[in-house]
Each structure stands twice: as structure tokens, then as C-alpha cells.
Amino acid sequence: MVIVSTSNAVSQIYPSAGTAWVITGHQQAATAPHLQQQFNSATAVSQWEDSHADISIGGHYRQYNANKITQLGYMYSQKLDWQMGKKEQQLRHWMTEKQQDYESLFLHFQDDTQFEIPNNQHGAHTPLYGMPEFVAVQQASTLSQQGQITRIRLPIHQGVVLTNNQSLYLFSSEKLTGLDIELSGQQLEHANMSISYATQDISANTLEYGWQPLLSAPLSTLLTSRWPLPTSWPRVAIAAPLSVQLGGHLTIKHARFFVLKITFNNLATDATLTKIRLPSWYQWSEKSNKHFVTIPGWDPINDNNNDGYIDDREYQQRLNRNARARLPYQARLIPLGRMWNESSALCYVNLFSADNRTLLSNYLQQQWHQRGYQGAYNDSLYRVPNRTQFPTSQGGKILELQLPVRQAGRFYWQSLSAFNQHLQHIDSQAWIGANISDLNLFSQPDLHPLVAGFNFFVREDYIHPSLGLSQQRGLLQRWEHFLLSAQGKRSVLMAHMRKGGKVRWQGHSQTNWQHDQTTNLAIFYLLNNPSLDFYQQWNQSFYYSSKNTRIDNYFQPGIPNNVAYQPTAMLQQDIGNPIPAPANYPAIEYVDSANNTIAVSTDSQITLHKQTLPITPSHWFYLYRKSALTLPWQTTVPQEAVIARQYQQGLILYYTDRKGKNKQFSEQASVTLELPGRYRRLNANGSLSDPITTITLTGYQGIILVPAPQSL
Predict the structure, then answer these.
(1) pTM summary value
(2) What are the 10-residue block averages of pLDDT along the chain, 712 residues in total?
């Protein structure tokens, strides 16, 4: 039996729990009266954050050079953007230097592929739906040495007035084969439009050289322009003064674009530009109130001269008639309708290539070094090419894998794991993580490779103050967390208020917040593996930041979020490490999704899928349990119970029911119990109660007890 060790854990700010921040940033001076002096600036908030958690993931300290906390960034290793940002420009620069094809970084459909998409507008403000990345207009005074040029905001809501001989400049990450333009105006019959492309870098002095003509056409209110690709069309750089003036992605280091100039000639009167669009390379359709898209396939056998473009002659003679793409980028695997928002244009990366994995890891190493990061995590691990992202009804074969995309998920996770293992091999101290929420990596065979691929996991949806015993991924199914810890995997366990509890059901009072914060921390201590696990308490939504609280997300506005949400006073109490349960208390049976017993809380091994794996004993025990009034073989999971865990200097209790999230149980259930000794209850403000030997718990209440000296 081999237990995999990871890089050394950071020292803990608090004695018995590691702590974390998730997506810090936008720090604000406190406005709550009692904190205005302590947190009188954004910098003061950042300084406090720097010294009150061990790690910060996905956030930033823009106005403060954090030097105590371990900072971890983002990494979306499975995707690149169609619209080239900093990462894409750097990768393309490296590949150009090595005379490698940038397109080899992506996966492509080999055949035309149709799939259903949700009825939304993901990608609507990108070239995927015809919107150019960047368009600028020449000022009426003509271009001077300073380059008088202004960016046009897209989509166009108010028309852009054009005068005679005025030019538009369009910047694109990829080669284009056409433009659709709409104009309004009088006396267009004698005017014409010329389109040319840049063949040289655009200097600071003038834009008026290095252009080669593509086409010329008479003006009309609707212009549908198409052209064959030039034999040579280079990406060009834009001089720094112009880049700064125009902003956007033009200012990125190594930025290069394919650039078009559209000039309007012989205008007798002004014309107004109302729309400029790229021709779509997708086919959209609707059937039975469902929306479908077809991504054209790219098959190299259709490209007779291997120039990366299917011209009209090749298109008519193509051997694979089911591959309609003219350019490889048109066939990229893009989960249309299943991205993030209107500006999303993500393309899946070919991680099956060892060269690509090396290139991407070099980029990450460079970025971590520049930003002072000690690693990063993938916040969208489940977004990989599979049947969920591409529910295909036609086509679907991936060119680089030669398998249908519906079968690609497990192979892609294997390649993603190989990539992450390469990162760990390069730097054994790097934190290589993923957000898996409450996903059980051991219950789905396709996900098994991910365990080796990462050395820490972010559990975004793991703890809430009405967590039940056996509902899907209930407490008795949290054994997978102890499987991960036995392999040396670290975890950020995040607690929230979204799924029930006093705050959710009864409102934002101080009493309710303190009750739920105490309960969440108690649940964390049930799960805690010291030096491996890190705790964060957050709000009831997926919106993170270091901004101040509001009346709708805390009982008092004007307090920095992390100051308000972290149970700092309770975390300062030293309860030591977990130890075996007191004598004569029953161990807890772990169950699978069907409530079948698969192990007990004192086990150090567990058998899953005919494989025996090490597991860290949690030493959970029942301080109280009430069996359901059902058939005898259905009593593995109690109807309600108090789950307990012993620490060297503490006792953790949590009273819950079978299914959890039951408002009636929260408001009406109560149980009074004898304690296994004399204890003092840890209060939300860090104080300790008088010694007690019995305790009364209400539904979904978790508490932390500290041993009291025995009375004489």
C-alpha cells in the first residue's frame, strides 16, 4: 500500500484549523462604526487578510504586497479563448518562433457536428456569433502622426457617421473571408468601398502603408462581401502609442492581429454605419422548440495543397463531403450555449499532445513566477469535451482523438491528469488544484485519474448548516474526503448559507448568523485533517470578494466580507488534533448512494470497485441516534443522530436528521444528552461557558466543547 505525499503544508494561522480565502479583491474601507478605525482603508483590509488565513486562491491584493499568505491563481488548462488575450498571444508567439501551427493547440470536429444548445446567448458578443473583436474608425481630421483613431463600441447601438475617404480598421485573431455591413444615407450610388489587409506592422507614424487590396465594391445599404484568402496574410503588431490609445487586447505583450482596412470613397454626403458583422460559419436551426447548431468539420484530406484553407476548387472536390469547414478554426470544439456569458468564446485544448502539455506548463510556470503564485486551481473541472457539453445528434468525431465526443470525457480527464502530473513533476512544491465542489471522485470510474492529477481540491459546496446524514453526498457519504486525505491530498472545505439553516430560514440576525457559523465550523472539525484541510466560511451565493457586507448578506452592513464571515474568535481556541472516540460509543457506518454500509469510521482501509484503498480513520461516533421505524434491514442510517468527534482538547457535536434541509426539524427538534465528561461550550465570541455535564441541542445545531477541569 502506497500513500502519496504532496508538497509540504503551510503553517497554520490558527492552532487546530487551516484557513483559506477564495477570490479576494475589491477591498473597501469599513463603514460599520465600530470597525472604521481598524479598517480605515482597502490596504488595512488586505493586511488583515494577509495575516488571518494560510492560503488565498483565485484572488489578488492589488494595493498591498501580501507576503505572509500563500497565493494561488487560476488555471483553465482545458480551454483557450477564440479572442486572443494575454495567454493566447504568448503561446502563439512561442509557437511562431518555433514555426509551429497555433491551430495544433485545439481539438477539432472531423465531420459536420450537430447538437442541441440551450436557448441562451452565450458567445453572442464574440466572433462566434458574428461580432468583430475590435473595430476602430479614422477621425475626420485624417490620421496624423499621433494616430487619430477611435474605437467603436460593439454592438453598434447608435450609428457611426462616416465621411468621404474615411476608413474603418478591423482587428481579428483569425483570418476572415468576408464582412457584412449595413449603411444608411443618401446618394450612395456613386460611392464605393475598398477593403485591404495589412502586410506590415503598423507603426506609430502612419497607418497609410503596407496595405494590399482584397476587394472593391459599389456602396449600398446592405453589403455582403466575400473574398478568397490571400496566399500570404501575416499577423501584424500595432505600435504602442496606437495600442494604448485604443486599449483592449491590443496592448498585450506580443499582441498581433490580422487587420483589415475598410475605406468609403466618393461619398457625396455622409453615410451612417449601423452594423458590421462577420459571416457565420455555423448553421443554426430550430425543431420542436429546440435549438440546434452545426459546427462544420475540418478534415485535412480536403486540403489538397496543405495550406490550411479550403478554396472553392478544393471545396467542390473534397473527399470528405461531411466536412464543410473552410478554415480549421471553424471546426474547433466550442461548447456553444454551454459557456459562461455573452462574451464567452472558449475552445477546447488538445491536451493529448505531449508538446502542447509542455508548452502550457511552461506558460503556467512563467505566470506563477511573475505573480508570486505557488500554484493554481482549475475552477471548471467538469467542463471537458463529453456528452454533456456536446449532446450530438449528428457527427461528433474528434479529429485528434478519432473517437466520438460523447465517449471522450474519460480520455480527456486522463490527459488532463497527465498534464497536472507533469506540472507536479516540474515543481513538487506547487499547489495543483481543482474545484470539485461536493463531487465524489471515487464513485465514478471515469474520474479516478483526477485523484493523481491534483494535490489539492476546492470543495465549494461542501458544508452548510442543515447537512443531513444520507441525502445525496450527506455526512455518511463524506468518507471520500478521508480517502483523499489518506493520499496526502489537501482540501479547501467551504461553508455557506445557501441550503438551509437559521439565516436562510429566519433571516439575517446576529443570533442566526452566530448559530450557523458555529454549526458550520463544528461540521468542518468533524471533517478536518490537520495540516491538510483549510476552512472558509462564505455567504449564500456564488459572489465572492473582499467588499463590505450589505443588509442582504449579513446582519450588519459595512464590514469587510472576510472579517464578517470568518469565525476568527472560535478558530483561536486550541482543541488539538482528532483522537479515537471514548470507550463504549458506537462507531459510525459509512454508506454508499444506496445506503449500503461500505466501511466504518475506525477503518484504515476501504474496498471500492474491487480495489482496496487507504482511508484516514475519522473516529466519528454516535453520542445519540434514533432509528427509523422501518424494516430492520433499513435501519443503517438513523432517523436522527448526534455525530461526535473527539479532539485532544475538544469534543465536536452535530445534531441532524436523515435527509437534511428540513425547516421543521430545525425549528422543532430537540435532544438533551449526557456528555462523556465535564466540558465548557465555546461561544461565537471566543468565550467559554461554565462547566456542563449535559447539553440540549436543537435541530441542525453544531457545537464545540472544551474539556473543563474535574471538580473536586
Answers:
(1) 0.91
(2) 40 92 96 98 97 95 92 95 96 96 98 92 94 87 56 92 91 97 82 94 71 92 93 92 85 95 89 94 93 97 97 97 98 95 95 95 95 94 93 98 96 95 93 93 88 95 95 90 97 94 96 98 98 93 91 96 98 98 96 92 94 96 85 72 98 97 97 97 98 98 95 61
Q: Which amino acid is at 398?
A: I
**Could you report how far apart the first and last alpha carbons of the chain are, in Å?**
49
How far CA 169 is from CA of 132, 206, 361, in Å, comes to: 11, 13, 35
What type of residue is 95? M
Helix or strand run (H / E) with residue 242: helix 240-246
- Sign, CA dihedral 625-629-632-635, equals negative
Compute the distance between CA of residue 588 and CA of residue 476 in angstroms, rounded to an integer: 8
Of the candidates 78, 41, 47, which has an alpha carbon nearest to the alpha carbon of residue 61?
47
CB atoms within 10 A of CB 34: 10
Residue 235: exposure state from Cβ atoms within 10 A (0-12, 13-18, ≥19):
buried
Written in H, E and C, the secondary structure of 495-506 is ECCCCCCHHHHH
658 DSSP 8-state letter: S
Dump strand ranges (E) for 436-540.
456-463, 490-495, 533-537
Q: How far apart are CA 123 and CA 284, in angstroms?
A: 14
Which secondary-structure segment (H or E) carries 375?
strand 375-378
The distance from CA 599 to its chain's CA centroid, rounded to whole angstroms, is 33
* Cα gap 385→351, rounded to integer Å: 11
Widest CA span of the chain, in angstroms? 108
Identify which of 406, 430, 359, 411 has the alpha carbon closest to the alpha carbon of residue 98: 359
Backbone angles phi, psi at 356, to 5 degrees: -65, -40
Rounded (10°) angle between helices 354-371 and 409-426: 50
Q: What is the Cα–Cα distance from 490 to 484, expressed in whole angstroms?
A: 8
Q: Which amino acid is at 46?
A: S
3-state helix, strand, coil in the chain (%, to 5): 20, 30, 50
Secondary structure tally for the chain: helices H, strands E: 13, 36
Q: Where are the alpha helices (DSSP H) in 572-654?
A: none
Indicate the residue type of 408. A
Q: Rounded CA gap, 211 and 195, in Å?
A: 9
Q: Which three cell numbers stand for residue 174?
A: 483569425
> Among candidates 88, 176, 161, which has minimal Cα distance to 131?
176
